[in-house]
Amino acid sequence: MKYDIAIVGAGIMGLWTAYTYAKRHPSKTLILFDKYTPPHDLGSSHGESRMFRLANGEGDAISRLGLNAKKQWLAFDKNHPGTFKQTGVAIIGPKIATSSLHDSKEGFVQATQKVAASYNIDHQYLTDPKKQAAKLLPPFNIESDEAIYYEPGGGVVHPEKCMNALIKELKQCDNISLRFNEPAESIDETDPTSVVISTKAKQYRADELVLSMGPWLPKALPEPYKSQIIVTRQVLYWFTIESDYSFDYQNIPAFVCDLGHGKFFYGFPSQDGKTLKIATESNVQTSPETVDRTVSQTEINDMISLFENKLSGIDTKTKPRVKTCLYTSAPNSDFVIGRLPQSKRITLLSACSGHGFKHAPAIAAVVCDRIDGCDSEFSKDFLTLLELKGQVFTSHNWRL
Fold this sequence. Notes:
By secondary structure, the chain is of the alpha+beta class. The chain has helices at residues 12-24, 60-79, 108-118, 129-136, 159-171, 217-220, 297-307, 360-372, 385-388, and strands at residues 2-8, 30-34, 50-52, 84-85, 89-94, 124-126, 146-151, 155-157, 176-180, 186-188, 195-198, 203-211, 230-241, 254-260, 263-267, 275-279, 314-315, 321-329, 336-339, 346-350, 397-399. The protein folds into 2 domains: 2-45 and 159-221 and 332-399, 3-Layer(bba) Sandwich (FAD/NAD(P)-binding domain); 87-156 and 230-329, D-Amino Acid Oxidase, subunit A, domain 2 (D-Amino Acid Oxidase, Chain A, domain 2, 2-Layer Sandwich), CATH 3.30.9. Helices cover 24% and strands 27% of the residues. The strands form 3 sheets. Strands 1, 2, 9, 10, 11, 12, 19, 20 and 21 form a 9-stranded mixed beta sheet that branches. Strands 5, 6, 7, 13, 14, 15, 16, 17 and 18 form a 9-stranded mixed beta sheet that branches. It has a 3-stranded antiparallel beta sheet with strand order 3-8-4, covered by helices on one side.
């Protein structure tokens, strides 16, 4: 049997692409592979919560993706309640930026506010935060030299709930085959009529192949592409909330706190009323095979040092629950979306650079547009890293 489309990697990108393609082409056949059974905690699509911001200081095209994705998240949540929660998002940072975050060319608060204004995104820009933030962010120690960007339409996406809902939808389609715990081992495009995906069990043929392998992608690609995609180890922390404080949805939005000089932390309203998820970002390079999934006391202490003078109500004496996560990043924190150079059938969808989860519905639409040969409003925004570098991919048979 030859499938119309095969997808390798069932993280959020692979699942949303399968879901979008199946909705567009209900009579076509699709096969989806994953090394494990999703959702799992070995890659990037886990951790209970992901922040959703409409205005993104990282760039114009990413904000337009956000506007598109928001509509789809709201529609999806109507059928699958609990996958998206509109909590609002607050970004705190210096009025006069000392450095930039996420490759923005100015202060992160200022860059985000600028994007929000240009797209008429509902927001508030608070420049007298000591008074104005008392109700919005009561646990925070806000200084007079800081500003706050607040976006009421922002919120939180719940990865595991979303992925389970997508899998449930896909299982209801008779023409979709989910091959979990069956890793793809090699790809062969030498046959002009199809691409061949081999596993230990058998060979599968498809007209189109999407590689949405997240942190497993660099290992799958040959040089010079492999070294251009970087995997980094991240740590998520759930600290105990002191009894006199509340961090639930009714009392606090999702938040980012830019401390200046390249330091920041972010967090989410409490899911259980007992713990608060907080994290920062790390540049420590790793791979899914070599990553250290233990978290040291030194790392915990370093995390505490970031927020302890800024955030009240957190029990720092009780050891937090911790979990590691992997970011797969391209240069300039761009996305890698598009046809593999010199390939007629293989599309890359990976390296979402730590901020792709919230945009998954819109990114999946971009990928399906390209496979269908349609232009979209994002057609010229997301060339693959390989195309931008002008490289020529000549191998048509390689191991994953």
